[in-house]
Amino acid sequence: MTSISRVLLFVVWLAFVVYALFFAPGAGGGEDPWFGRLLTLQADEPSLLAMFTLLGLFPMTYACLLLRHDDRGVPAWPFVLLSFGLGIFALLPYYILTSHTHAGSHDLRLSEGIRRTAESQVTHGILFLLTLVVMGWGLLAGDLGVYMEAFHTSQFVHIMTIDFFLLTLLSAYAIYTGSRRRWMPQAIALLGFIPILGLLIYVWITRKDESASPYVPRDTVMKSRRRRESSF
User: Where are its TM segments located (predicted)?
Assistant: First the structure.
């Protein structure tokens, strides 16, 4: 199953790279009508600005998920850092490279301050509220017609929209794999289909999970697992 997952993730990543480079419709580069305005936050369409902002909040949420226990064979922080500019292009390779590894196989790489920030309820709450506000603003104040026109005439808008939906699908995959490791109901992966918010809920639920926390000794983790087994 792991090998199949890696192959599927690689196929999705490669297909999106090829599509973005050669087949995405609309103008690109200096001719793109929205690229410069979105990068400078001067676009006058709320729905486009909201999507652009959400693509900044998504990597922050993945940072909360991955940086709290960055102990796999491949470090997560470079991929998280790149995801702020590359989105799914940066995060999918991390999941491809680590789908066959086990958590806890290497020493934790980041400072305790960063890890605690990633696990903090305050961090999760701020991201949750920001996401709700941005989504609500984009949906209520935005013009779907303008957005759809931009989707077909701007390569940047086209790619960032697909990027957003792929990041959402990756959320479901990340929650699914995490739930298997934590012995949680795998149906919880359905949370991932709620963009950003579902992943934040999962991160909040598992913030004190002994089976993944770097602050809990391994013998304590094993004892906790045995207690769970004996309770069935």
Answer: 7-28, 48-67, 79-97, 125-144, 156-176, 188-205
